[in-house]
Specification:
Layout lengths: L1 E7 L3 H14 L20 E4 L11 E4 L2 H6 L12 E2 L2 E7 L10 H12 L6 E2 L2 E3 L13 E4 H15 L2 E4 L4 E7 L2 E7 L2 E3 L5 E6 L3 E9 L6 H10 L10 E10 L10 E6 L7 E6 L4 E9 L9 H9 L2 H7 L3 E11 L10 E2 L2 E3 L15 H20 L6 H14 L1 H9 L10 H13 L13 H4 L3 H4 L6 H14 L4 H7 L15 H7 L2 E3 L8 E3 L2 H6 L4 H5 L5 E2 L7 E2 L9 H5 L3 E2 L2 E5 L1 E3 L5 E3 L4
Parallel strand pairs: 1-2, 1-14, 2-9, 5-16, 14-21
Antiparallel strand pairs: 3-8, 4-8, 5-7, 6-7, 10-11, 11-14, 12-13, 15-18, 15-19, 16-17, 17-18, 20-21, 22-29, 23-28, 24-25, 26-27
This protein binds flavin-adenine dinucleotide and iron/sulfur cluster (2 copies).
């Protein structure tokens, strides 16, 4: 099939692109404003393929200054969008460890001891200290609080309403078509195959879609972005070694909650010092809350689900959450390399937008507005090139899109943020100081250091628990868990001081129950497995098996003979296994022993 513009992924970046583009494609009387260069006389043909089964896929409650969103929708009224609110209150809260199980450095222990000693003089309440102010670089004053799923449905309906572009959900793109260093379109995923990708009855090879321009906005774990990186390389010194796994709940707060719609809370310090948390209050007593487990957390026990439960149970948060009820649930990884994660933004026949193009600002904790803005910048550039009948060459895209991006507020803020989180490579206290330094000096000063890939950072379970749990016990527990087909953290965490979770069936429940209650997870038949363990012998030798520990959907289990097993029907496409795998790929140390390919299905919950 031939189109003019083929788009991969419908996240905020693509929503920004298609909103701005479609406005330029239609005249006020509804007739096409631009003809297709490929088929003169016909309207421009723009098609967007989204992997998830709905255009409202999204896994974040969002707080955003909304600068880019407001530039597109100057009259935006939050009342138009379900679950949206204006930000009315922001708090940063330091959580002390009330149970003594978290791994705290001596500096942090000393700080905690001081806080406890002088608690009468501090805003100390329920084992927590509310910071007296929110640093300016984090503040979202006057901004918006959104549900990503609801926002995407709202904006998707508007884009489709214009009638100038088509969006196809449930249609994963398997690869970019590349001919002599020019991207000529995309190939859709084969259907009617078995788990290994072998054709079965009803086999339908993925269709080739030829396009003059391919726009790639497939997010932080997008396989098409990665294919382009492997083919075209990354700019010198750029890498994607900083990331975080975000896991969240959407809950009904209790009837008598004192929390007002528009309240934004950020936490640090607990359950582990490296884990940041958030709680955003939507209208009607609904809240989005969750944690981020970052790449620099040097623990092979990175289970987001269990840590999220301990976080909710912190006395400061539990005072608000007791009596709450789970509505939906989700997990997704977040690219945190920022500007340093930037790939080649444009080439012959293609352009990259959104988080996969390094837009996320790690200092302000903002991703949606930047992703959106990169999309609008590309749309303006595409319209300019179409109007002047110029082809989508690398040179023309650099002269328009890349130039706009470099000249924008987004680039200026990305430069300020570029080194702001480097300090975390050497510990939390240093990390926080580095952020403050970069934030207060507008990026002129930072505590610089090199990000190391997980395989260089992660200790084995035996090393991590040295002095706390004997290696022989760990080996035994590992064997028992492998026989039961379960991950080992559930057995190890209680041994290192983490109390059992008392399930209430409403907010506190087993991981499996949360998967069942908190949204629909689907793995439609007829598609190949999208998570592959590339070199099984590396898995057999692996000291962490962290892929099974971190799996957000319990889709990866220890498996037989030391090689993990993958169940496509439970996978929520969060990408945690891909980022966390602790063994480097033998041919490329920037890759790991897991392939994360294009796949169908995943999590569906419009509230996320
Ligand atoms: C828990 C959590 C909380 C967050 N909180 C905030 C916040 O408070 N404020 C904020 O500004 N940002 C926040 N973010 C970050 C924000 O969600 C991202 O920066 C933003 O979604 C990036 O947009 P994007 O369009 O670039 O990518 P994505 O949102 O990742 O969208 C990419 C799309 O591409 C699709 N796709 C991938 N591969 C394919 C394929 N092969 N074929 C077809 N489609 C494909 C995906 O299904 C997805 O829909 C948060 C993120 C998480 C995970
Ligand atoms: S996929 Fe990676 S983390 Fe999982 S067992 Fe294999 S090498 Fe270890
Ligand atoms: S297997 Fe799926 S659910 Fe599990 S970590 Fe990987 S992407 Fe996430």
């Amino acid at each position: 099939m031939d189109v003019d513009i083929a788009c991969v992924g419908f996240g905020p970046a693509m929503a920004g692109f298609l909103t701005t583009l479609s406005r330029g494609l239609v005249k006020p009387d509804g007739t096409p404003a631009l003809a297709s260069p490929a088929e003169p006389g016909m309207p421009l043909r723009v098609v967007c393929y989204e992997r998830a089964d709905d255009i409202g896929f999204g896994v974040s409650g969002i707080v955003t200054r909304g600068r880019g969103l407001r530039a597109t929708f100057p009259d935006l009224d939050p009342k138009q969008i379900p679950m949206a609110a204006r930000v009315v209150e922001e708090k940063v809260v330091y959580l002390l460890d009330p149970i003594g199980a978290s791994r705290r450095s001596w500096t942090l222990r000393a700080a905690d001891a001081c806080i406890r000693a002088f608690k009468g003089l501090l805003p100390f309440e329920k084992e927590a200290v509310e910071l007296p102010w929110t640093p300016a670089f984090l503040r979202k004053e006057g901004g918006l609080l959104l549900s990503m799923g609801q926002f995407m449905q709202w904006v998707g309906a508007q884009v489709q309403g214009v009638g100038a572009v088509q969006i196809w959900p449930g249609t994963p793109v398997s690869q970019a078509l590349i001919q002599e260093d020019k991207v000529t379109g995309v190939r859709l995923l084969d259907q009617g195959v078995d788990k290994q990708g072998r054709p079965g009855s009803g086999f339908m090879p993925g269709m080739d879609i030829h396009a003059a321009l391919t726009v790639v906005g497939d997010g932080p774990v997008g396989p098409i972005g990665r294919q382009l990186d492997e083919h075209f390389g990354r700019p010198q010194g750029h890498h994607t070694r900083d990331w975080a796994v975000g896991m969240k709940f959407v809950v009904d707060l209790p009837q008598d909650t004192p929390l007002k719609a528009g309240t934004v809370m950020h936490t640090l310090g607990f359950p582990e010092p490296e884990i940041f948390g958030f709680l955003y209050v939507h209208p009607d007593r609904i809240a989005s809350l969750g944690i981020f487990v970052p790449s620099w957390f040097d623990s092979p026990v990175r289970t987001s689900y269990r840590y999220l439960q301990h976080w909710m149970l912190h006395p400061y948060l539990w005072a608000y959450l007791q009596g709450s009820k789970l509505r939906s649930w989700g997990a997704k990884t977040l690219g945190e390399s920022g500007r340093r994660g930037e790939p080649c933004l444009a080439g012959d026949g293609y352009a990259r937008i959104g988080e996969g193009s390094g837009t996320t600002n790690v200092l302000s904790g903002s991703g949606v507005d930047e992703a959106w803005t990169s999309g609008t910048q590309l749309a303006e550039s595409v319209l300019e090139l179409l109007q002047s009948a110029k082809p989508f060459t690398k040179g023309n895209l650099e002269q328009t899109y890349v130039k706009r991006r470099r000249a924008s507020w987004m680039e200026a803020e990305a430069r300020v943020a570029e080194k702001s989180r480097d300090g975390f490579q050497k510990g939390v206290v240093r990390g926080l100081l580095g952020m403050a330094l970069a934030g207060l000096t507008k990026g002129r000063l930072a505590l610089e250091s090199q990000a190391a890939p997980p395989y260089k950072r992660l200790p084995t379970l035996e090393e991590y628990y040295l002095g706390r749990i004997p290696a022989s016990d760990i080996r035994q527990l590992r064997k028992e868990c492998a026989i039961k087909g379960v991950s080992v953290h559930a057995a190890l965490m209680p041994r290192s001081g983490w109390p059992a979770i008392a399930y209430d069936g409403k907010l506190l429940m087993s991981h499996q129950d949360a998967l069942l209650l908190g949204g629909k997870v689907a793995g439609p038949p007829g598609y190949a497995d999208h998570v592959l363990f590339l070199y099984p012998h590396l898995c057999v030798e692996c000291g962490t098996r962290i892929c099974a520990e971190v799996c957000s959907g319990q889709a990866i289990t220890p498996g037989e003979n030391g090689v993990p097993a993958f169940d496509r029907e439970k996978c929520v496409h969060c990408g945690a296994c891909y980022w966390n795998c602790s063994q480097p790929h033998p041919d490329d140390p920037e890759r790991r022993n897991i392939a994360f390919q294009a796949g169908a299905g995943g999590l569906h919950s419009a509230e996320n």
